Amino acid sequence: xxxxxxxxxxxxxxxxxxxxxxxxxxxxxxxxxxxxxxxxxxxxxxxxxxxxxxxxxxxxxxxxxxxxx
Length: 69
Prior knowledge:
Layout: H1 2-9, H2 11-24, H3 27-68
């Protein structure tokens, strides 16, 4: 019976240790930072490809209208 009482009395200490460990853990925040960086890189790539596609489309349109005349 004393074993159970000791185990129950240690429960608040273990819970506070678990909360402190969770608070000090930085693995999740690192993953979030990396995902934000990857998202920003993706947006830059999409903007660059869109700009290149529009410029190329205009160039081919100019060539097509020049050949048509």
